[in-house]
Design goal:
251 residues; alpha/beta; eight-stranded mixed sheet; 6 helices; 24% strand; disordered N terminus
């Protein structure tokens, strides 16, 4: 079935040495270019893994945008998500740093203790990447697919003064927003959903769009005709994602 195709992609097995901090002066490069698939950081007392992508197009001397991409549930992962989203190609074309965090237990959030631990992971990951690279504090973005889309919504809500904008693909708001988003800042959000999604109905996306709009958030809503529970590769969605992010630095 089309909606499970992203979950059947084999993980990439490439590897490179871990990035190191180079220089430190205001006009010196920091970090290194490359793909670093096995990075780790301590968060809430546990070692948490992530995949870091720093294309050659990123100027290591200047503050760069950062995109944190949360994968879906079950067999999706930090190594599978790059294969079906092609976000690495987008990062190379647009010159941003890209991070794929790895979920513990094959899912993001859902239970209160896990939500707290996963938010702590986001905080620690962001601090780690900022220590190694020049990251523009006004251009930190989050996105996610399916369960990762749910968590991208949640990270943007809970870290509204850190995250410039959020994009959720096939992933609705969770029970944490049952009574409203109620974010500390009205962050912009992009919602992408297929109208033939058999896993998470498009009705969730439409309701989320309206909920955000009622609370004063800027919303870009993309409903893809004929799309199931899969990344909208044929709809030019990556270019739209970047156009949305690039147009919404944090003010």
């Amino acid at each position: 079935m089309r909606h499970i195709l992203p979950l059947l992609v084999l993980a990439c097995g490439c590897s490179r040495p871990a990035p190191v901090v180079v220089g430190g002066g205001d006009d010196e490069p920091r970090g290194a270019h490359g793909t670093f698939p096995d990075e780790a950081v301590n968060a809430a007392g546990k070692s948490r893994a992530f995949r870091l992508v720093v294309p050659a197009s990123v100027d290591l001397r200047a503050p760069a945008p950062l995109v944190v991409a949360f994968h879906g549930m079950l067999i999706d992962s930090k190594d599978v998500m790059p294969r079906y989203t092609k976000l690495d190609d987008l990062a190379a074309a647009k010159g941003f740093v890209l991070v794929y965090p790895e979920a513990n237990g094959k899912a993001w959030g859902l239970l209160p203790d896990k939500v707290s631990a996963d938010l702590a992971f986001f905080d620690a990951l962001l601090a780690d990447v900022r220590a190694k690279y020049r990251i523009d504090p006004a251009r930190v973005y989050v996105l996610g697919m399916s369960n990762g889309g749910y968590f991208a919504h949640l990270v943007a809500r809970e870290r509204a003064h850190t995250v410039a904008a959020c994009a959720a693909h096939s992933g609705p708001l969770g029970l944490e927003t049952l009574l409203g988003v109620r974010a500390a800042r009205k962050f912009p959000v992009m919602i992408v959903h297929g109208d033939r999604d058999p896993v998470l109905s498009v009705a969730f996306a439409r309701e989320n769009r309206d909920k955000y709009a009622r609370e004063g958030h800027e919303v870009k809503y993309v409903e893809v005709p004929g799309l199931g529970h899969e990344w909208a590769t044929g709809a030019g969605i990556n270019e739209q994602l970047w156009e949305f992010f690039a147009g919404h630095p944090k003010k």
